[in-house]
Task: inverse folding
């Protein structure tokens, strides 16, 4: 998390903004709190994008999609105003790193964690696909690791598979390295496309290596069943890949984790992030008590050396990344 800039909002809707979580060409994501103390990640569209009616429509669709698939494997959208001058939505803040950040910081996940991730993520994809949606951007930065399980974020380019489940001909919506062959070709995208990306994400989790387009995965040395699952998901023809339900059942058979599914190093990082969030909230309340919008506080910036103290203390643990490089993330809300 980073300090607020002079021109950053101090309030968004009924939330007090306390820090920056991420930024990109499409907008910015802020850490904020409600009066009741709920911590949320608020995603705000940039002024340039807000002037584009098509972009506003896509943003509204993202909000609808994220609300449609709310479940234990996603991040709930708790508030939104897609019609605001700068459209925004708020989702629960998850004090855990993305899979990308965790692997970068701590190395590949142990096999027990990979199987839990594989089972839970496949179950989440099963729910999403049952709702008639295709995520279309399954990748390590879009999977947050919470103490209770992995959380899929960024429904910015999700599409309804039951109605129009197509990309525009020739369009490539997704992330290089994790896109299915049909996405690369700008062809019809189906739930099977998500399973292709799912297999590549499991490869990254187990090896720490990003897949490269056109380069065969090196599956030697992986658990034989994991290698089989990844290989099945990489079938060239979508109809030859397992469905989410099959992948879920496959991974559940090998998931031996109980409540604690992450390695101690990642759990320690999550605990430190949670602790520092509580400390930050307490310091903010002490420096500037929460007041409702319009009560005369004017959305002032916190006074004194609070930010330098808190940000320095938090160090590198405030690293929950948000992807904003593809059309629209939630998540932290990407």
Result:
């Amino acid at each position: 998390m980073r300090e607020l800039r002079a021109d950053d909002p101090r309030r968004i809707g009924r939330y007090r903004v306390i820090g920056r979580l991420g930024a990109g060409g499409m907008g910015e994501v802020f850490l904020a709190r409600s009066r009741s103390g709920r911590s949320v990640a608020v995603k705000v569209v940039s002024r340039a994008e807000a002037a584009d009616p098509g972009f506003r429509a896509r943003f509204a669709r993202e909000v609808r999609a994220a609300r449609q698939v709310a479940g234990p494997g996603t991040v709930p959208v708790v508030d939104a105003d897609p019609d605001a001058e700068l459209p925004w939505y708020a989702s629960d803040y998850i004090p855990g790193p993305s899979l990308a950040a965790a692997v970068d910081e701590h190395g590949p996940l142990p096999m027990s964690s990979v199987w839990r991730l594989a089972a839970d993520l496949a179950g989440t994809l099963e729910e999403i696909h049952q709702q008639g949606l295709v995520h279309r951007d399954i990748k390590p930065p879009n999977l947050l690791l919470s103490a209770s399980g992995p959380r899929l974020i960024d429904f910015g380019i999700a599409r309804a598979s039951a109605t129009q489940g197509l990309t525009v001909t020739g369009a490539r919506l997704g992330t290089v390295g994790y896109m299915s062959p049909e996405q690369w070709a700008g062809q019809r995208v189906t739930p099977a496309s998500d399973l292709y990306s799912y297999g590549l994400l499991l490869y990254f989790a187990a090896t720490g290596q990003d897949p490269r387009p056109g380069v065969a995965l090196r599956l030697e040395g992986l658990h034989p069943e994991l290698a089989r699952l990844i290989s099945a998901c990489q079938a060239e023809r979508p109809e030859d890949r397992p469905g989410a339900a099959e992948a879920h059942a496959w991974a559940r058979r090998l998931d031996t984790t109980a409540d604690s599914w992450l390695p101690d190093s990642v759990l320690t990082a999550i605990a430190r992030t949670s602790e520092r969030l509580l400390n930050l909230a307490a310091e903010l309340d002490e420096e500037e008590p929460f007041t409702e919008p319009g009560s005369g506080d004017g959305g002032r910036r916190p006074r004194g050396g609070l930010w330098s103290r808190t940000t320095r203390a938090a160090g590198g643990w405030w690293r929950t990344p948000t992807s904003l490089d593809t059309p629209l993330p939630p998540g932290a809300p990407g």
Summary: The beta strands are 11-12, 15-24, 27-33, 39-45, 77-81, 88-92, 133-134, 143-146, 149-152, 159-160. The radius of gyration is 20 Å. The first strand starts at residue 11 and ends at 12. Residues 162-173, 295-334 have pLDDT under 50 and may be disordered.
